[in-house]
Specification:
Helix content: 40-55%
Distance between the termini: 37 Å
Low-confidence stretches: none
Number of domains: 2
Radius of gyration: 17 Å
Mean pLDDT: 84
Structural class: mainly alpha
Order of helices and strands: EHHHHHEHH
CATH class of the largest domain: Mainly Alpha
Number of strands: 2
CATH topology of the largest domain: 434 Repressor (Amino-terminal Domain)
Shape: globular
Length: 115
């Protein structure tokens, strides 16, 4: 079954407040709330487009496939959409060494220069 992976992506990226971020990109309040609460099972392509713009991702990044009841074979292309548990960025940053943090900041600064 295909499901949305938006809340998990926003949580792992420490995006807060989640509903308000989606609202800034003109996602209807009830739709945004349903997405964050995990109750949204049907969103239209315009909303999907707005979410991708807000999160700077592609649909591949926010769609998840779970092979329930072995409905497809393991080699099926849908299995590429199966998401693994994303690490919590805040926990990583909380536990990072000063040396690694300096390296990370240096890499980020270099990436900004390239853009």
């Amino acid at each position: 079954m295909i499901s949305l992976y938006i809340k998990e992506m926003m949580t792992s990226s420490a995006i807060q407040p989640q509903t308000i971020v989606l609202r800034k990109y003109s996602v209807n309040f009830n739709t945004a709330r349903g997405i964050i609460k995990g109750k949204a099972v049907n969103i239209n392509l315009m909303v999907l487009n707005k979410i991708c713009i807000a999160l700077r991702c592609t649909p591949n990044g926010i769609l998840n496939y779970e092979n329930t009841n072995d409905e497809i074979e393991p080699t099926h292309l849908l299995n590429k959409f199966t998401k693994k548990e994303l690490p919590d960025v805040t926990d990583i940053l909380r536990n990072i060494s000063p040396k690694k943090l300096a390296e990370l900041l240096s890499m980020m600064a270099k990436k900004e220069e390239d853009v």
